[in-house]
Amino acid sequence: MTGRSPLAVAAFSSLLLAGACVANPNRTAEPPAGTAAPQATVEDMAAKVEAQYVIGPAAANDLGYRIIWQSRLPLIKNAPFRHTHLSGDAIFAVDELNSIARLRPSDGEQIWRVSVASPVDIFRGIDWILTPTTTGVGRHSHTDIDARVYISTDTECFVLDGASGSITARQGFSKLPTTTPINSGKFLIYGTLGGQIVWHHAIVGSEWRANSLDSTVRGSLARSSGYIVAASDHGLVMALDEGDASRRWSKRTFGSVIASPTIGNGRVFVASLDQYLWCFNLGNGQVEWKYFTQSALKTSPFPVADMVLQFVPGEGLVCFNAQTTRIDGDVRWRNADVVGVPIGMVTTGGGDRIVLWDQASHTLTLVDPAHGSVSSKRSLPAAAELQLLREGEFAGDIFATAEDGRILRLSPKFRKSVEPSEAEKAAPAADPAAATGAAAPSNP
């Protein structure tokens, strides 16, 4: 699938006509009327256009997507870009020096760019929150609702004006976060090294409430239907009430949990070092099923539609029936040869496909969800990060980030990605050990 096909040339031509492509100052002159361009020339032109993008037109078409825009941000002190973060309808790009640029959603143009924190600070997350601001005193006071950007690091939270990017406040965290905060209204909810789950009041700038697990929270938190779910490295799984921080239920696995729990269709999925993939009922914590694998599980499960996917060392990618009534789990298929972690599902011209992204090899793989066979594979060497949004303003869109400052947005050509009907926010299925080192990307 990596060769240049007539489909690539067609995609290239249609994008030129639509004005979606970047202008090519070295464009080859058109042949005289009545003559056809040599095939090699057309192929070369298509290859040049493909190389201009983090994900080129042909690769996008293979995914069932079209290019909306690509922007290019200048590097500061040659610091590469690592991450694109989305919150509400706001888009932010972050470089290695913790310089943050806000981009316009319609065309990717930079609105503002600021440097916050220190390059040695660990970046945790960015949240776009509508914040009441009051001016004047007494009967002369007036309250406006302004957009504020809350940038969380491992020690404090920077508050920026959404329109200008100017810093309006700095808030210290009473307990230091080890996870990406989840924005819940006026609160930022995060886990800590000591095992606390903290509700930080973003408007006031202080801790509101907290609850505790028995040890460090290493994986990110999961949220769905008014529940916040966390797991500890001593194997405790706890569901908390998103509204008041109270404990709803808790269960314990047989071993440590360092991967992020995930939620799908009213079920909590937990991968443990005890070699089990656990499925709990979200409402009451009852164990619905658990599957024993060949190895300790260190990466997060990925629920999508009526399935849950889990990478198992020695077995490869394993697809389970998430809704099975078998207490020992129900395997639908295995694929021992694919690499990468699942990031979502897309609808292509050939049907629904699971998308896998391997960061190390920069390889994107599409897998048939019916039986696990690979339908296509592409190398995307320019992509430092790939995100497929599962909810929110950009649900179904793909954002790709290149270290050289290129940020790309793709949208589905067909319908939106096939996802669970229930709104969820689950962490990416990445190595959770990154939570204690360099900042990991957030689940938009």
Structural write-up:
- Among the domains are: 1-52, no CATH class; 173-337 and 421-444, Methylamine Dehydrogenase, Chain H.
- It is 8% helix and 44% strand.
- The protein contains 3 helices and 33 strands.
- The protein has helices at residues 6-18, 39-52, 57-63, and strands spanning 65-72, 81-87, 90-95, 99-103, 110-115, 123-135, 142-153, 156-161, 167-172, 182-184, 187-191, 196-201, 206-212, 222-224, 227-231, 236-241, 247-252, 262-264, 267-271, 276-281, 287-292, 302-304, 307-312, 316-321, 331-335, 341-348, 351-358, 363-367, 374-379, 383-388, 398-402, 406-412, 424-425.
- The protein has a 5-stranded antiparallel β-sheet with strand order 17-16-15-14-33, with no helix packed on it. It has a 4-stranded antiparallel β-sheet with strand order 1-32-31-30, covered by helices on one side. Strands 2-3-4-5 form a 4-stranded antiparallel β-sheet, with no helix packed on it.
- Helix 1 (6-18) packs across helix 3 (57-63).
- It is globular, with a radius of gyration of 23 Å.
- The chain starts with 5 loop residues before the first helix and ends in a 19-residue tail after the last strand.
- The relative contact order is 0.13.
- The model is unreliable at 1-29 and 420-444 (pLDDT under 50).
